Inverse folding.
């Protein structure tokens, strides 16, 4: 049975206009979902996080994808990584898939990037939660121009001091 989310994962409506739904297949994936939420909040984007397995909770996935207030979905899953495709099959809104590194990671990566024709899922790298949030922000900036200015400021900071890469030591 999927448990309710802890308090830090309750919906955060910042200005009530833009909304992203982040779906994870298991409660064990909530730590990476928090990285997405943190980055989206920095840009002023409201974000709801839900545990909803494509296999164990298909009715919940149906309910979440039917929410007209949601502008974009980020679906994160490991192993067979069916969740991004299940979400994309149920909506015409953009879906970003984040394959999670479970086992070798190759199975989840291929499940996300090898979607059948007609059911596209934008894919980021293994465990690339922050890149998913940035891609979501870039997509939403097409509809909400205020986000473009925030993205420009974010990238300008990178020019001054690039972020540490995974494995870099201070």
């Amino acid at each position: 049975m999927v448990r309710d989310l802890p308090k830090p994962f309750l919906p955060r409506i910042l200005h009530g206009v833009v909304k992203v739904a982040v779906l994870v297949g298991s409660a064990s994936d909530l730590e990476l979902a928090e990285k997405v939420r943190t980055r989206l909040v920095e840009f002023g984007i409201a974000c709801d996080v839900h545990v909803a397995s494509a296999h164990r909770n298909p009715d919940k996935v149906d309910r979440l994808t039917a929410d007209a207030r949601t502008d974009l979905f980020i679906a994160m899953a490991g192993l067979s990584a069916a969740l991004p495709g299940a979400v994309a099959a149920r909506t015409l809104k953009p879906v970003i898939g984040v394959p999670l590194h479970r086992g070798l990671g190759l199975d989840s990566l291929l499940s996300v990037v090898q979607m059948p024709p007609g059911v596209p899922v934008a894919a980021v790298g293994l465990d690339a939660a922050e890149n998913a949030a940035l891609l979501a922000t870039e997509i939403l900036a097409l509809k909400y121009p205020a986000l473009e200015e925030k993205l420009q400021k974010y990238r300008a900071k990178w020019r001054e001091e690039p972020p540490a890469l995974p494995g870099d030591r201070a």
